[in-house]
Amino acid sequence: MIAQLPALIVVIPLIGAPLCMLVRYRDWSWTVATLCTWASFVCAWIILQQATSGNTISYQMGGWAPPLGIEYRIDLTNAFVLLVVTGIGSIIMPYARESIRSEFGTRRIYFFYTAYLLCFCGLLGVTITGDAFNLFVFLEINSLATYVLIAMGKNRRALTAAYQYLILGTIGATFIVIGIGLLYAETGTLNMYDLSNRIAEVGASRTIGAAFAFLVVGISLKLALFPLHLWLPNSYTYAPSMISAFLAATATKVAVYVLLRFLFTVFNYELTFDALPLDYILACLALIAMFAASTVAIFQQNLKRMLAYSSIAQIGYIVLGISFASSAGVTAGMVHLFNHAMIKGGMFLALGCIMYRVGTVNINKLDGIGKRMPLTTAALILGGFGLIGVPLTAGFISKWYLVTAALERGWWPLGFLILLSSLLAVIYVWRLVEAAYMKPVPENAKVVEEAPGSLLFPTWFLIGASIYFGIETNLTVGVAMDAAKQLLGGLG
User: Fold this and answer.
1) Cβ(432)–Cβ(72) under 8 Å?
2) For residue 421, which of 403, 401, 397, 394 has the smallest C-alpha distance?
3) Sign (positive or negative) of CA dihedral 42, 46, 51, 53
4) Does the pLDDT value for residue 196 go beyond 60?
């Protein structure tokens, strides 16, 4: 059974999706989705334990040996990301039951859980596969389900947001499949490990260069790297609260993994950072994202939109770590991938709690919310501290390793800019503190209770985890450091 886990982690939610359509009675579809996500999480945890031994797990689909057959290939990097995706996907399921009832209703709710499991399955498939075209297929499964989930938001603008994401997502997917097609035309293989060997033999031909350009642009669009981020703010703002949290914590993180896989495994260091000034390009785009998106976040009235722009800035931090092209830099990027998933997932869940009770997340209508919903507001503010990088939060660990990587590379001005950009996060988090605790509750404000336990527990679990991993870093930093060394092949 243990040997079949790489297949089961994808197959379980894939089978669960049609089951949700068939099992329509009351909460049965939610039960099916919950069991599937938690079963996948158990699989991911066992796989990570196997990967930490240093061995690469190769699973041959249908008994066909790679490179002819499809291979699921797992090392520390994708085992780490699998844990993030399954962990977040499982933790928010108790939250989903009441939250989705409130925002979507109970009519045809099985459609929602079917789409959710397909989205979940697509993310896991993208992460675990060792076949480039199979990666594209899973990416499309995930994307199509995501468009549906975003469109299920209460606000009519959710349809516009889903349509905008569909157009831009299709462009990104087209770039990716063209890049994969060019690689196949030049090398005659789609297996990523085999591709890396054959590309090393072929060298930097024009076809390989064109494939690299198409793939980086397509992945950057899925990643929402500045300036290819235009789909993200509306998608996170108008999607159902649970989906905003899930996408913010997982979707862009899986895209980061894909970028890492192509940069350091398929094309390898010599063809990316030695032959091209990719480190300077990525660093410049990351810095612009960090400052521009954080500045825009300061002026947002809708808190979900504020966190959406904050996510674009945080993606900049991750990409900045990757741009250092060093073990320390990639470690910093992967640590922040994990930490930001917890922080931003918890913050979006907290906003969902406020939406559940108050009916709005407009900051102008939340005066004194800290007095009315103290537990929810405390979770939101603690998450904000993590975005700033306050000591004893996971965000502090991320920025510490980023600054260390910048100094190690000799780019000391970037260390200063990382600290400076954190001050922008202080401004928009302070707006939350001011509205929640320093403004009186309006006289005509309706009386609201604290959010239900089924919503509060997942929220506080993620926020609490972000505090825990700000103190205990053996899992996150240890695994990320070993994964970075594997990716770079021992390069510093």
Assistant:
1) no
2) 403
3) positive
4) yes
Please tell me the total count of domains within the chain: 1
Read off the DSSP letter of residue 272. Answer: I
Mean pLDDT calculated for residue range 357-381? 87
Question: pLDDT tens digits for 267-311?
Answer: 877 777 777 788 888 889 999 999 999 999 999 899 999 999 999
In a domain, 48, yes or no: no
For the chain, percent of residues with pLDDT exceeding 90: 40
Can you give the pLDDT at residue 491? 46
Burial of 52 (0-12, 13-18, 19+ CB in 10 A): middle
- List the one residue out of 104, 111, 123, 106 whose CA is nearest residue 33: 111
Dihedral sign for Cα 358, 361, 367, 370, please.
Answer: positive
6-to-39, 46, 119, 223, 394 alpha-carbon distances in Å: 12, 10, 18, 25, 29
- Which residue in this structure is represented by tokens 């800019």? 417
CB 222 within 8 A of CB 255: yes
Residue 288 in tokens: 């612009």
457 sits in which H/E element = helix 453-471
Burial class (CB in 10 A: 0-12, 13-18, 19+), 312: buried
Q: Kindly tell me if the per-residue pLDDT of 30 is higher than 50.
A: yes
Amino acid at the residue 186? E
State the pLDDT at residue 445.
67
Domain membership of residue 353 (yes or no) is yes
247 is a domain residue? no
Residue 209 has pLDDT above 80, yes or no: yes
Domain assignment of residue 440, given as a range: 277-492
Separation CA 200–CA 202 (nearest Å): 6
Q: In sequence order, which residues have a C-beta less than 8 Å from that of residue 119 and are 6 or more positions away?
A: 142, 145, 146, 149, 246
Structure tokens at 426: 């202080």
How wide is the angle at C-alpha 455 spanned by C-alphas 449 and 313, nearest 5°? 110
| Tokens, residue 386 | 């993590």
Q: Are 93 and 37 in contact (CB under 8 A)?
A: yes
pLDDT in tens, 144-186: 999 999 988 888 888 899 999 999 999 999 999 999 999 988 8
Give pTM, 2 decimals: 0.90
In a domain, 335, yes or no: yes
Residue 1 confidence (pLDDT) above 80:
no
- Nearest Cα neighbor of 77 from 267, 208, 259 is 259
For the segment 447-456, what is each residue's pLDDT rounded down to a tens digit? 778 888 889 9
Amino acid identity at 401? Y
Q: Rounded to the nearest 5°, which phi and psi values hold at 58?
A: -120, 120
Can you tell me whether residue 482 is helix, strand or coil? helix
**Structure-block tokens of residue 345:** 């997932």
